[in-house]
């Protein structure tokens, strides 16, 4: 289901992508990929010394020094909760995507079948009159199915129908490489869907959690009220609960789901997500859920029911507890929950009252966004996709690549990756805390690293998906079913190493631990990340640091659990394991002391993998630049800054961001990435090379005594 503006973290579809480490938060790229495309912003596209705040002291707060003038001249737009340099980039992408979609929708007399699909999908989304006229009708067939549920067995069939169509509910199913044989896809059963973005918000008693719970429950109630208004006749013979009662029932079920769900820090540990089980064993873990009925209804391959085939459970405790809750919580509450899941999935597809109410909670209250983005942007997202919901994104991406990404760009990127791989090899060869055995395995893992650049060579086939110009909701459902069934068909099949998990226009970069693979989509390979008109120092500071970050993920606290082939396996000697953990815990406590805004401390354990990747990535990018420059002789200063200084400014400027207080608070709790200020300052505080470049005295904030280093 294409869901404009919905953070992917909320929907909890069990997709392979969710096990990948990304450079930017996937949940928030949703916002980035739909940025305002007005010409409000006349800034140059890439790196610029115009952004500097020259009154700020580089040794006190380098982020302020590098970004100060950008921050002052790019206030948060009303239709965003966050605006960063990467949003500027995404703004340019979304304008390109808009042109592609509008051409296909309105300007071509003869269209290819790809153009018919993306053009009509976009036209159907833009056609608000037809959408308004249909009101809540598109959701009614599903509501009738929910109403008809009378037994627990029927509820399980309903959950299967949700999984078949790609709507998450209290059981979720996906496919991912087998943690112990990464050449083969395996079925993966995940945790349940909740409307609040973090399980802790259901369980904690601080003021923010309590207030958000109240607001959320009021939002659920209002959505049920809207639905009642839109369905004048009772949907079935039995008396219906009042909206307030239904909202309470939803809270009861989601609170039980939250209690059973792993917290974000636990969930990051791949060993905890590795729990093979057969269907027979599932019956013992979750006796109230008949997984034979469930799996048959999802469309997953029938041989999963075979007692020798195993599935992977991300959290067996979740299944045990939810199974128990099926007995203690009344069926009427589960039906209210399923109705709520359906409303939540359909809200962007129904008349604007539903969409506005959804925005009121997720946009205004939760994220501090003042206005909804214009329709065309939301439609761009709905058709061209977003991480976790690619929609028809590959069809758009094919055209995007033709327009924006030539073979020369691929070759330059390939060279950069090779340069970074070389310095990471030197780092792994020289760190003094690893034994020869572990070092040899680390080097073997680096050599086995696979890379993907730009977009796929083999494009996805959408010929089975019917798209019509007058059926926005139906188009979205058909796309969602096609995508879900495609991923379920992978179960039991060999992993296709040419597969792309994201669209080419995506503004992000990825490391997939189960594939030992980095991915850099064409969408990110533009200024300020990559700029062919700029000196190497600028490109190594931005693109180089990004590449280094992704590579280092193979050796962060989570990625290091996987071997060169991507199998979950312990290849560390006990002594090296202890040495790694000691160094990583320095980084964890360092970042736990940082605040994204006053009162919102970062979680050093939650952000550890990303911080290890940031720190390692910038360091190897810096040494790759030094190696390149050593072949060129002394380089002149540009704009008054040496190559070293330009490298660090370029790195820090990638992270300039304005955001609402709500957004900063949310991210401090939910995001595995640190906020922009600390992605810049946290890393540079740890680098003697930075201190030297800017002449920072020991003991200044950017040159503290307690520097940390893992790689
Ligand atoms: Zn990352």
Q: Portion of residues in helices?
A: 40-55%
> Span between N and C termini?
40 Å
In terms of per-residue confidence, which ranges show pLDDT below 50 for 5 or more consecutive residues?
1-11, 27-42
C-alpha geometry:
globular
| Count of discrete alpha- or pi-helical segments spanning 4 or more residues | 29
What structural class do helix, strand and pairing data support?
alpha+beta
Percent of residues in beta strands? 5-15%
By DSSP, the count of extended strands is: 12
Main β-sheet, in a few words? 4 strands, mixed
Present as ligands are: zinc ion
Strand order of the largest sheet: 1-8-9-7
| Radius of gyration based on Cα positions | 25 Å
What is the residue-mean pLDDT, rounded to a whole number? 93
Structure characterization notes:
The protein has 711 residues and is α+β, with helices and mostly antiparallel strands. The protein contains 29 helices and 12 strands. The strands form 4 sheets. The protein has a 4-stranded mixed beta sheet, with helices on one face. Strand 8 and strand 9 form a beta hairpin. Helix 4 packs across helix 18, helix 11 packs across helix 16 and helix 20 crosses helix 25. It is globular, with a radius of gyration of 25 Å. The N terminus is likely disordered. Zinc ion binds next to strand 1 and helix 25.
Short summary of the structure?
With 711 residues, the protein is an alpha+beta fold.
List keywords for this structure.
711 residues, alpha+beta, 4-stranded mixed sheet, 12 strands, globular, disordered N terminus, binds zinc ion
């Amino acid at each position: 289901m294409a869901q404009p503006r919905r953070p992917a973290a909320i929907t909890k579809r069990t997709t392979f992508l969710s096990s990948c480490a990304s450079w930017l938060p996937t949940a928030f790229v949703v916002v980035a990929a739909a940025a305002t495309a007005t010409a409000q912003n006349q800034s140059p596209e890439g790196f610029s010394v115009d952004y500097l705040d020259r009154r700020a002291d580089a040794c006190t707060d380098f982020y302020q020094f590098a970004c100060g003038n950008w921050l002052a001249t790019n206030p948060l737009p009303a239709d965003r909760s966050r605006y960063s340099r990467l949003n500027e980039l995404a703004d340019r992408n979304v304008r390109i995507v808009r042109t592609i979609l509008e051409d296909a929708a309105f300007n071509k007399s003869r269209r290819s079948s790809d153009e018919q699909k993306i053009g009509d999908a976009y036209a159907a989304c833009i056609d608000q009159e037809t959408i308004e006229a249909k009101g809540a009708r598109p959701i009614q067939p599903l509501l009738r199915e929910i109403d008809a549920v009378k037994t627990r067995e029927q509820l399980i069939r309903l959950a299967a129908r949700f999984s078949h169509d790609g709507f998450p509910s209290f059981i979720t199913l996906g496919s991912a490489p087998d943690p112990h044989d990464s050449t083969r896809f395996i079925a993966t059963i995940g945790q349940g869907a909740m409307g609040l973005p973090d399980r802790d918000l259901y369980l904690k008693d601080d003021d923010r959690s309590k207030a958000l719970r109240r607001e959320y429950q009021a939002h659920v109630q209002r959505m049920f009220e809207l639905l009642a208004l839109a369905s004048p006749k009772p949907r079935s013979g039995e008396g219906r609960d009042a909206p307030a009662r239904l909202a309470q029932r939803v809270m009861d079920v989601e609170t039980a789901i939250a209690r059973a769900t792993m917290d974000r820090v636990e969930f990051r540990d791949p060993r905890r997500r590795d729990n093979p089980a057969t269907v027979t064993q599932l019956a013992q873990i979750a006796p109230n859920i008949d997984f034979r009925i469930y799996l048959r209804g999802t469309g997953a391959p029938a041989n999963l029911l075979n007692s020798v085939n195993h599935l992977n459970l991300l959290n067996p405790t979740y299944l045990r507890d939810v199974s128990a809750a099926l007995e203690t919580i009344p069926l009427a509450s589960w039906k209210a929950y399923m109705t709520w899941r359906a409303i939540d999935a359909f809200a962007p597809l129904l008349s604007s009252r539903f969409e506005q109410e959804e925005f009121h909670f997720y946009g205004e209250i939760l994220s501090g966004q003042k206005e909804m983005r214009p329709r065309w942007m939301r439609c761009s997202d709905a058709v061209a996709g977003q991480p976790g919901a690619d929609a028809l994104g590959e069809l758009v991406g094919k055209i995007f690549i033709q327009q924006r990404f030539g073979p020369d760009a691929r070759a330059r990127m390939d060279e950069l990756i090779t340069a970074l791989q070389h310095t990471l090899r030197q780092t792994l060869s020289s760190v003094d805390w690893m034994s020869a055995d572990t070092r040899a395995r680390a080097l073997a893992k680096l050599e086995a690293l696979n890379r993907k650049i730009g977009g796929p060579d083999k494009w996805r086939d959408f010929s089975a998906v019917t798209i019509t110009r007058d059926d926005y909701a139906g188009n979205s459902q058909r796309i969602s079913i096609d995508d879900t069934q495609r991923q379920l068909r992978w179960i039991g099949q060999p992993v296709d190493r040419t597969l792309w998990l994201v669209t080419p226009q995506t503004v992000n970069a990825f490391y997939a631990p189960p594939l030992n693979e980095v991915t850099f989509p064409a969408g990110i390979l533009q200024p300020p990340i990559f700029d062919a008109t700029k000196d190497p120092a600028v490109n190594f500071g931005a693109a180089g640091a990004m590449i280094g970050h992704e590579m280092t993920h193979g050796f962060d606290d989570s990625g290091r659990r996987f071997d060169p082939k991507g199998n979950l396996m312990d290849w560390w000697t006990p002594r090296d394991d202890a040495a790694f953990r000691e160094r990583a815990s320095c980084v964890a406590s360092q970042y736990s002391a940082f605040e994204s805004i006053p009162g919102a401390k970062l979680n050093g354990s939650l952000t550890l993998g990303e911080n290890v990747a940031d720190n390692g990535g910038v360091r190897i990018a810096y040494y790759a630049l030094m190696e390149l420059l050593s072949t060129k002789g002394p380089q002149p200063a540009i704009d008054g800054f040496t190559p070293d200084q330009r490298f660090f400014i370029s790195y820090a400027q990638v992270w300039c961001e304005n955001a609402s207080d709500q957004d900063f608070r949310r991210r401090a709790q939910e995001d595995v990435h640190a906020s922009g200020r600390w992605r810049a300052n946290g890393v540079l505080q740890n680098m003697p090379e930075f201190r030297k470049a800017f002449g920072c005295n020991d003991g200044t904030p950017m040159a503290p005594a307690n520097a940390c280093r893992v790689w």
